[in-house]
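Continuing the batch. This is chain 6 of the set; chains 1 through 5 are on the previous pages. Same settings as before, nothing changed between runs. Recording input and output for traceability.
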Amino acid sequence: MSDWPCGISTGCFYKTPILDALPALRDGGFTLVEVCSFPAHLDYHRDEQVEAAAREMRLLGMEAHSMHAPFAPHIDIASHDHRVREESVAELLRATEAAAKLSCRYLVLHPGPEEEGHPSPQDWYWRMRHAADGLNRVATRCRELGMVLLLENMLPHLLFGRTCDMLWLLGAIRETNVGTCLDTGHASLSGDLPTVVHKLSGHLRMLHANDNLGKGDDHLPPGEGRIDWMSLVCQLVRWRFRGTIMLELAGRGSAEEILTGARNAREFLGDLSRRAATEC
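Output for chain 6:
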């Protein structure tokens, strides 16, 4: 893009070992990547796999800009169960160490559990407090390793799926090396997209750029769904966004089809950013 670096998440090949996926991504025109932590793609518990991935990226002239921390029902830093919280934080800290070995600048993390629900005010408060405490520990380790922790907005049906929840957490975390990653698909489904850049502008470091048809988290290439991308790009220009666009696309179709869609999306967003410089 004209002003914003544009990379791609390796999650579009999450079922493929990362050592096989990296050459395909490089040959497809992408050298800036976010590393997916899905075990079949990269087992971050195994140092030899992480170190092999780091070597391969150096050989290919690629940069691991960020790593997406693991998320699963059993990873719940907001749990009322102390043991579950401790095990969840330990898992995230293990991923943090792997991200540092990959020389990542950012660790992207879902701040809440992969759990539906609308808790009572008291339950919400204590879950948020537990989450903030766990996130502060992860942020501290990120700082020690020279990284920044980015909180990603979640889907609206999940426990912390509102922009105001993320803003509350940002205020509750003591560390200052913490920002946000805006998932455009999640924000579109929650109805937050028209205002979320303004709300997060002081914290926004990265976009997970993906589109959808308005009903589900489709992770389509930008321009293939219903998101009003010109409006979003104008918001980014207006609020002086200086971060990275990371395409986070579904792994549908062949590698060639996925990468063709990604290149088309990069060109589409680049055209919009150049128009926005004069039209917004």
